[in-house]
Amino acid sequence: MMAESTRRGVPEATVGRLPGYLRALTELAERGRPSVSSDELADLMGIRSAQVRKDLSSLGSYGVRGVGYDVARLSDQIAAELGLSQERPVVIVGMGNLGRALVAYGGLAPRGFQVVALVDNDPELVGTTIEGLAVGTFADLDPVRTPVAVGVVTTPASAAQQVADTLVGLGVRSILNFAPVVLRVPEGVHVRAVDLATELQILAFHEHQRLLADSRGDEAG
Amino acid sequence: MMAESTRRGVPEATVGRLPGYLRALTELAERGRPSVSSDELADLMGIRSAQVRKDLSSLGSYGVRGVGYDVARLSDQIAAELGLSQERPVVIVGMGNLGRALVAYGGLAPRGFQVVALVDNDPELVGTTIEGLAVGTFADLDPVRTPVAVGVVTTPASAAQQVADTLVGLGVRSILNFAPVVLRVPEGVHVRAVDLATELQILAFHEHQRLLADSRGDEAG
DNA sequence: CTCTGTGAATGTGTTCACAGCG
DNA sequence: CGCTGTGAACACATTCACAGAG
């Protein structure tokens, strides 16, 4: 039956899939599905069922043998693991096109993230309003009055490190970085990087390999 | 000295870092640095030097012992490996905020990607111009006249699968998906997914863990 | 008889540590 | 010497395959 013992240490690879499970489970719940098998979840996620079972068992979750997982229960369990019970205040720094797109993106609020501040250093932008939120400077951000859990960096690369330093100074320990630079942060601060050009280049690599393989096949065949 | 033999099979994890190396090397080249050591590259990338050496040796690249890697040579080598010698035509589907932000993003052209078409199904948008490019429908896309290497999906989740199917039908074999769904594509088509909410949830997980650790530390201490 | 949970096997990635080139 | 290149050790992740719960 397994006790409270196994409970610590969800593998990082599993953590990376938890949001995906949550998404799938939310959809299933909306369709009124009471339970789901590892096979079906695997199919929805594009992975194998053994992976699903390993992942979920690492949460200490209980499925029911012969039946599957209770959709609502598993949803709650994953949400709890991700710490989504509390609202997480987000500040977005850099109100260019991307920053504005993220503010307008509707997917945050329903997942427990609330954009509480917009920051830019362009005097033309400061004081304007985007999607009902005023754009300010860092000086307007009082860490006590406006606690921030996550900082999103959408500035040009040249400004990103300084912005990260400021965020860290404000007590932010999670940063999502869209600028194409490696941010240096103190131990204990988490950074995740998202970079369009990187992603495209990885895709380009695989295209290129296919081309090489094809042309070699032509010659051989 | 090693011949043309080792040349095949760059590990996927290494591929994921190649764009980063390229970025670092480009900066070094701009500063006029002729060569660089694995230690310094590692520092720029936020990884360990052994990793750098393993990665670069898997390309069959030659460093010079006692000196380091020739910046220009290594740059060329990585660019070649990524297949960046040829321009890759990109189509962006979904001209919402994110789609527009990507069109306006300046980081593509200098890295060998050219946005050749913008697609949306909103009649209000079709015919308008964004950053000098006309917005059309899929019907306007002739795969012969406008070959497309990479499709970028920035539509709502509900439309993404259908868009992916259409892209695949047009011969696209690389898709960058910003919609929060798992795309089903035939064997041989590569999909990379970027999802803001997923990234934030992963950050939230680590925040949550720290909190648990802290409170457990408090009780214990 | 179905589907979970999990040890064991395999595969992949990272790090160590050092031989050996320049 | 200083630095690369790489086997060997280790760590992590995935997959297999099956015992056993319901």
From TrEMBL, chains A, B:
Its main location: cytoplasm. Residues 20-59 bind DNA. Residues 83-182 form the CoA-binding domain. Keywords: Cytoplasm, DNA-binding, NAD, Repressor, Transcription, Transcription regulation. Transmembrane segments: none annotated. NAD(+) binds at G94, M95, G96, N97, L98, G99. It comes from the Bacteria. SMART domains: CoA_binding. InterPro entries: CoA-bd, NAD(P)-bd_dom_sf, Rex_actinobacterial-type, Rex_DNA-bd_C_dom, Tscrpt_rep_Rex, WH-like_DNA-bd_sf, WH_DNA-bd_sf. It is found in: Cytoplasm. The keyword Signal does not apply. It holds the Pfam family Put_DNA-bind_N. Belongs to the transcriptional regulatory Rex family. NCBIfam families: PRK05472.2-1, PRK05472.2-2, PRK05472.2-3, PRK05472.2-4, PRK05472.2-5. Modulates transcription in response to changes in cellular NADH/NAD(+) redox state. Homodimer. This is Redox-sensing transcriptional repressor Rex. It comes from Ornithinimicrobium pekingense.
